[in-house]
Amino acid sequence: xxxxxxxxxxxxxxxxxxxxxxxxxxxxxxxxxxxxxxxxxxxxxxxxxxxxxxxxxxxxxxxxxxxxxxxxxxxxxxxxxxxxxxxxxxxxxxxxxxxxxxxxxxxxxxxxxxxx
Amino acid sequence: xxxxxxxxxxxxxxxxxxxxxxxxxxxxxxxxxxxxxxxxxxxxxxxxxxxxxxxxxxxxxxxxxxxxxxxxxxxxxxxxxxxxxxxxxxxxxxxxxxxxxxxxxxxxxxxxxxxx
Lengths: 116, 116
Known about the structure:
The structure is a homodimer.
Chain A: E1 9-16, H1 20-23, H2 26-40, E2 44-51, E3 57-63, E4 66-73, E5 78-85, H3 93-105, E6 109-115
Antiparallel strand pairs in A: 1-5, 1-6, 2-3, 3-4, 4-5
């Protein structure tokens, strides 16, 4: 009995040596996620944010194609973003996403891992 | 320059040959995620659900330890759940999670993948 196939991938972007103040801004974090959603060619349905005390932000957006989320640790100048999707992102997504994240958080390192 | 380390893992559980009606129930999907959060020893902060038309459910919960999400395709009797976390789940999580998912959706197959 063959299972019908639902392709799903998770892309993880590990951010380090970034700007603490930018990593702690809910508005900026949401903006970065929206730029990534556009770069992937996906559609946002609903979004949720959480501001941790004394610092740290989590944002998650449900997409028509699954979800994307971001979690930051400003005190460590780090964070990570995962895109989990049942649809292949646009061809140039991996490079474009790295560039968007580097610029948004002035991060000197963005490393990508992929689960497929 | 060494980056401060934030450990993060993604566990993906691919569900197949499950009950279509159960996969299409928002309430049941939310309940299954809450059982998984408890099994992992994690804390839910906020939750978001989306019912697709004509069928399909997405649920995502922000956790104190990152996030967990579920996406279902009742018409294919499939779905998947991802737990993305900055903290190791409880030791018995992998086996317990598989059992929780199998029972919740009467799924004959639950396959786990891990990105670390």
